[in-house]
Amino acid sequence: MTPNPDAEALYRALLESVQRSIAAVAAPTRLAIVGIRTGGVWVAQRLHADLGIDADQGILTSAFHRDDHGTRGIPTTIGASQIDFAVDDRHIVLVDDILYTGRTVRAALNEIFDYGRPRRVELAVLVDRGGRELPLQPDHVGGRLDLGADERLVLSQETSGRLALRVELGDG
Predict the structure, then answer these.
(1) Domains of the chain
(2) What is the pLDDT of residues 7-32, one digit of tens each?
(3) What digits encode the pLDDT tens for the residues 91-142?
(4) Residue 112 contacts residue 60 (beta carbons within 8 Å)
């Protein structure tokens, strides 16, 4: 089995990549950081705090736009999206924890466009594990990790805010 990756090292690499991009944004007040529930929200909140910028924050639920909800179901404990700012003409950094098939990101983009038309959307992910089924690639990535078909990554957040990743056997 693949050893557990160092989530904090991956986070630092992701933070550096996003910092370089944010420095080039002409109007930082037009920036928003939006996390995809649940792990993406943890990463997005931490990025927002560590970047120390005045950017709007949002939480996005992609479950209602997924094309596989018939087989996955819709979680009963999922919260609604919380986008409390105008999306039109904004530069949005969309944050997720683990990029795999691309279906969650596709659904998240659909949800963002339900709120308006952003100027630009950049994708930031903690881990890209490959295996894409849709033509989506991250703009910012903490690291890439090849897992076996029978392995999956699970992100957790400690009470201190530190992130931890573990590899489990199960459905990729």
Answers:
(1) 7-67+80-149 (3.40.50.2020)
(2) 999 999 999 999 998 887 766 668 99
(3) 999 999 999 999 999 999 999 999 999 999 999 999 999 999 999 999 999 9
(4) yes
Q: Which tokens go with 27?
A: 């109007």
Give the ranges where 73-138 is alpha helix by DSSP (H): 103-115
C-alpha distances in Å from residue 148, one per residue of 24, 88, 102, 137, 152 = 37, 40, 18, 20, 8
**Is residue 139 within 8 Å of 21, Cβ to Cβ?**
yes
* E-assigned strand segments in the chain: 31-36, 56-60, 91-99, 120-128, 140-144, 151-157, 163-169
Alpha helices in 24-128 (DSSP H): 39-51, 69-72, 103-115
What are the residues whose beta carbons fall under 8 Å from the beta carbon of 84, sequence distance 6 or more?
56, 58
Quick one: pLDDT band at residue 75, thresholds 50, 70, 90? low
Q: Could you say which DSSP state residue 161 is in?
A: S
* Nearest-10 Cα torsion for 39, 43, 44, 50: 160
- DSSP 8-state class, residue 65: G
Q: Is the peptide bond before 38 cis (omega within 30 degrees of 0)?
A: yes
